[in-house]
Amino acid sequence: MNGITQSTALWYASRATGVVSLLLLTGVVLLGVLVNRQGRLPGLPRFVVTGLHRNLSLLGVVFVAIHVITAVLDPYVTIRIVAIVLPFSSAYKPLWLGLGAISLDLVLALILTSLARARMSRRLWRSLHWLSYAAWVSALLHSLFSSTDLQHGVLLYLTIACTLAVVAAVIWRITHAGREIPREERAAATLTMMSPRGGPQAPGSPRDGARRRAPENVR
Amino acid sequence: MTYGTTVPYSASSPGPRGSQRVSPGPAGTGPAGTGPAGGDLPRLLPVHGAVPVDLHTHVSRYAAPPYFGHPGQLIPVLKAAGLTGRGGAAFPVYRKLQAVAEARTRPVVIGNGAEGEPASDKDKSLLWISPHLVLDGLQLAAEAVGSQAVALYVHRNARLQERLRAAVAERAAAGIDRAPVEIIDAPPRFLAGEESALASRISGQPAMPRFKPPRVFERGVVGRPTLVHNVETLAHMALIARYGPAWFRAVGTPGEPGSMLCTLHPADGRRDVVETALGTPLRELLRLDGTQAVLSGGYHGAWVPAADAARMTLSNEDLQPAGAFVGAGVLVALPATRCGIAETARVARYLALESAGQCGPCFNGLPRIAAALDEVASPRPDPRAVTDMIRWAGLVEGRGACHHPDGTTRFVRSALHVFREEIRNHSAGRCVDPAREPFLPLPADTALAAADWS
Questions:
Q1: Which of A50, A99, B196, B451 could bridge to A142 as Cys pair (CB 3.0-4.6 Å)?
Q2: A203/A186 Cα distance (integer angstroms)
Q3: Most B CBs within 10 Å, among A124, A184, A197, to test the B interface
């Protein structure tokens, strides 16, 4: 009797932390898109968005760790420790647990490279950070298909909501990128916004007005 | 001890013009090979005015560049001489050479003549008048680090580039150069000469700065260790290789030895390039009567009240306690009849627009600061503008890939301090110069298109 209770406790803990992890990772992806587009949350300064993105990702790792440890300890199915990080090596549902392992590996890679960001090239860090989308998608598929919990009821609606939110964020990101101010013009745009008395032209210099250079003058 | 010449070359009117300014110092060096007396100036500029030096005259004055035969030999000589970078940062020259020479991959050597600072003419003038001294230095630096990939990076100016190409061809034909030299075009931007922007441009990307580390001497042009030296630094190097550290140290101070080229903007509106010893009193370089403040270090430098400047010499030892520095040798005397705030506001706008637009604190912060300074320059400004500016300055400092935000806030902060009396005037609706005729030089163009950066 005692053994069964312990067993169900691990089973519940694993499922619950899995759901919370998915929610946290979804939040991290949404905030990441916002950081990338230099967006803001209402009432919060921009650097708070960056801080939230980072702290939420670290919290997500804690929940993922509990999720994985409890799943391994849970005697309901036998999962070998190596299957946690080595994709598709599990005897039980190799594909869907494998996606979970991929997601875990990617999340660890993202966290470690971000912690070491100051010591590595920006370009490398940035290209690695693109993997966060793959990590989220594999986590979602893993959540949906390794158990039936998310396939009906409130948890299904939650999963659909998470998916829609990330899809919407990606669409926003893509369309927003198209309307982005080219970096050469960013300072001028801010200056125009800040100056009630005139455009970006330095006062006293020969050209007047806030116009862009005429196309025929551009080399 | 100063040797002066009117600006022989400037962006607005390329080519030599004007006549020689009377030299206050003893002019004249010994004939070739005998070794000139160390105290004599000019060292880099010709003895007789602004006539460009051709290869024949160059070799008969200085002799051919003394190759050492082995990489690394020049480095201890430069260390003993105490030569520092003349591009503005005053970094010990031998340290960069050492780092690049010790690298395992074959390095690249670049002479940096991209003088983005609108108030500086000394690199253009040196390249125009004494190109062979720079090219000698480039060859000796390449030998010291064991490089065959050598280039000279200069602003887009057809006459100057044509001249430099001819000089390179002439040297190759005469068998003087050991490494072929390529002339590479720098976009006309303030930041084009920043080391990492230079490395990016020469690698085929836009001339925009990137985050460090890795430093350019670790990974620069196409990922190879890259030695970048200002063209004046290379010219000094060429002479130290010939005459030795003791000769170099015969002028200057023990802490800051040697001579340097300065671009002087006296209060009467002229522009002179002079060669002067470090440690020369500023009042010997610029007449300070009728002057309210001196700008030292260019537009990333700082204003110093004229009364303080009168007690200082051209040295970081004197200037740094006042928040300024020697930099690339730009010295401007602001006449008492001009508004220091309005002048600083014009330049701050220009600097904000020269942001590469890569780092948020820079492209968001500098325009805000510039707009607030514009407000302070206007009659009866919003009293919150000064405190806003100081708060924003604190938010942008140290947060860019390059030092553009830091240099700009240093310049603005010094103006708020030095011209505080004028700010009080503006609050009362008065200004010392209501006409606002521009004094500090600025280029007409602003960088608003991608093409401007490549």
A1: A99
A2: 19
A3: A184
